[in-house]
């Protein structure tokens, strides 16, 4: 059996504590029928199953997963249940109009509370604590971006981002913002707990079942065919490995580390409370949280894109990136210098060509899809599940009128253009941070790249 504990600190901690042995469920035993067949046992697929059954308890829902539930980004991410959406509010307004942009923002803010509501109602203990996201500004250019974020929030009047009056934080900090609409949680506890919940409600999950193809009314797997009126494709970055979705999403790797637990006194000195997540305003993204057991769980971008959108286990671990993450963490918080790094992991997230997530349904083929979260999927998957459930069951709601509903992103270019563009973009973000450290002015490189990253 595969060592699923090695996927992430989150998965390992489940097995270590005896909460979940990560043993795969039974595979599809052969041909079968269902009302809804869902491809992918991550949060998008499981939230869709949950809300479909809640809307119609009589539905026969089957979830098909190649490995185990939570194998992908759902069990490896940073644990931010946030309002982050790949496209900024300004970009949404530019594309869809002000009313649609504000509706999307309100939906994202409400989703953070919806995740907390459901996990409480269903008894899913996932360490959910809502205490907000801290954004550290550590240079003059970063301070300008912090001010711009606060100003944008005030301009639209929906998000409640503001400066902290007397923040405690990392070395070199000039100021810090707080967005209260974010919760810290344990992602593997969430996705694995949600899987047990949808089973209890009547869904069937088949693991170790590889999906080979799908079409109107059926899903072909390595174990047989599922005939279903509705098919839901919820594969996120792994869609790049399937012929039908190969160019619709690009798998971009993000890597993480976790330290051993730190003392409460150390955390008081650091200034991060339970339930808080944190980042700063650099261009090459970093993100972190204080875990329920007092560790740093800290991640960031920096791993390169691989030719042909390939996904392999060895790409999850890049020593150079792990060393960079540890060095960055210690630079931010010297109090963690003596803390051992106990876990190193990573995985692919899904990036659409226009950095615009979607939740879509074709009423003719009855095929639904959702994804393109660009790493902001821990909460957005919940919104996707509710939106797809409304679309599939034929309801017209506020969710089905959101601007991401039935949005279609252009396809990624063929190789070698995809390889060159993706890795040049990564290098540009690294160069932008270096440029700002040297010039102490906002990066020209980053300004030129902004339209390509949803801003």
Would you mind describing this structure in some detail?
- With 455 residues, the chain is of the alpha/beta class.
- Helices cover 33% and strands 21% of the residues.
- The protein has eleven helices and 18 strands.
- It has helices at residues 9-17, 43-55, 89-96, 98-121, 140-156, 187-201, 264-270, 319-332, 377-392, 417-439, 444-449; strands at residues 32-39, 61-64, 80-82, 133-137, 162-163, 175-179, 182-184, 204-206, 211-215, 218-221, 224-233, 250-259, 277-280, 286-290, 296-300, 341-351, 358-362, 367-371.
- The strands form three sheets. Strands 1, 2, 8, 9, 10, 11, 17 and 18 form an eight-stranded mixed beta sheet that branches.
- Helix 2 runs parallel beside helix 6 and helix 3 packs across helix 4.
- The mean pLDDT is 95.
Topology:
Layout: H1 9-17, E1 32-39, H2 43-55, E2 61-64, E3 80-82, H3 89-96, H4 98-121, E4 133-137, H5 140-156, E5 162-163, E6 175-179, E7 182-184, H6 187-201, E8 204-206, E9 211-215, E10 218-221, E11 224-233, E12 250-259, H7 264-270, E13 277-280, E14 286-290, E15 296-300, H8 319-332, E16 341-351, E17 358-362, E18 367-371, H9 377-392, H10 417-439, H11 444-449
Parallel strand pairs: 1-2, 1-11, 2-8, 4-13, 11-18
Antiparallel strand pairs: 3-7, 4-6, 5-6, 9-10, 10-11, 12-15, 12-16, 13-14, 14-15, 17-18
Helix pairs in contact: 2-6, 2-9, 3-4, 4-9
